[in-house]
Amino acid sequence: MSAARTWQGPSAPERLALLRRTRSVAIVGASDNPSRASYFVATYLLSSSPFDVYLVNPRAATILGRPVYPSLADLPVVPDLVDVFRRHDDLPTVLDETLGVGAKALWLQLGSWHEDVARRAQAAGLDVVMDRCLKIEHARFHGGLHLAGFDTGVISSRRAPS
């Protein structure tokens, strides 16, 4: 069925360091459908993260009241991190676009794994994360993660990492 996974992703401390140095995120494959994971992640990042979030989808004009760009090349900035919600077969093209705009990191969502893309991206100097949810990882490192991956609403006196 699928080949064995041999590529090793970054450790938890390395993922935390990546998130700490990230200022802008482009969500490729953003959807205006509330039942889609990309919509949920965009909602979370816009409301609960410090990131400047840019939405990319060639078939939408606005999502969550925000402008949507047809491609990474159309963004007004070079995103630090490209968060990808696209089919497996589209991932090499998304990597080409990511490299073309000069982004520093490629993040493939839960269930998304493409070893050739990961190796090409790393060889080009990108940080790569695969098969992990950016929302869950951000919440995990910033105290907002319940077992189900949702904010528990618990108020803590712990100071947020700077």
Provide mean pLDDT, rounded: 90
Give the domain tally: 1
Q: Specify the CATH class.
A: Alpha Beta
Strand content: 15-25%
Please count the beta strands (DSSP E, at least 2 residues each): 7
The low-pLDDT segments are 146-156
Q: What do we call the CATH homologous superfamily?
A: NAD(P)-binding Rossmann-like Domain
Which structural class do you get from the secondary structure elements?
Answer: alpha/beta
Shape call: globular
CATH architecture: 3-Layer(aba) Sandwich
List the secondary-structure elements in sequence, H or E.
HEHEEEEHEHEH
Terminal CA distance: 44 Å
Into which percent range does the helicity of residues fall? 25-40%
Task: Report the C-alpha radius of gyration, rounded.
Answer: 15 Å
Predict the CATH topology: Rossmann fold
- Total helical elements: 5
Strand order of the largest sheet: 3-4-2-1-5-6-7
Please, could you describe this protein's structure?
- It is a single chain.
- Strands 3-4-2-1-5-6-7 form a 7-stranded mixed beta sheet, with helices on both faces.
- The radius of gyration is 15 Å and the shape is globular.
- It contains 5 helices and 7 strands; from the N terminus they run H-E-H-E-E-E-E-H-E-H-E-H.
- Strand 6, helix 4 and strand 7 form a beta-alpha-beta unit.
- It has a single domain, classed as Rossmann fold (3-Layer(aba) Sandwich).
- 31% of the residues lie in helices and 17% in strands.
- By secondary structure, it is an alpha/beta fold.
- The protein starts with 11 loop residues before the first helix and ends in a 21-residue tail after the last helix.
